[in-house]
Known about the structure:
By secondary structure, this protein is mainly beta. It contains two helices and twelve strands, in the order E-E-E-E-E-E-H-E-E-E-E-E-H-E.
Amino acid sequence: MTTVNSSQPWQQRLLNQSGIRRLKFVNAELMLVAPSYPISENLNTILVPQQNVEFYEFTFPSDLSCVAGFQRQEKETGSISWIQNITFNLPHMSDGMLMWAAMNGQTRWIVFTEDYNGLARVLGGMHQGLKMSFGATTGESPKGTNPMSFSLTEEQLLPYLTIPSYEDNILFPSTAGFSYGFSTGFNS
């Protein structure tokens, strides 16, 4: 006997705000990220610090200053992977951020995000961290802006992993080994 099933993989949400509200970076060498199997929409992601780690946190206004994208790609061999991409701009140059970008130019990152709909995700944890690109300008005119632009991109096995919350006390019940190097926030 043949069975026919029907499912709805997408449900409309009453609230749908675009953009990332908060994100934090951690060096990919310091954090093991593993999904539970089988992969499903109710994915439980396991996060295991490999030693004391330091997060770098950013907060954004709701004007699409930070966005994430996921693109499926198929290789000639038939294997499928995902290109994860996060881009954001900071509104003005900062010597501290320029030095941080220079010192961390070779670091691969795992990025925790919380969007404006309250959904929390992990990017860069399957199977290697995200590579960071950075650019800054002193401005193009006397009244112009002088932003710093960041992009983190890499091929991954999945579009992203879900986590129950962005908050450390839920992700890591005992946070004694964690510290924040700095937090950068701005308002529009």
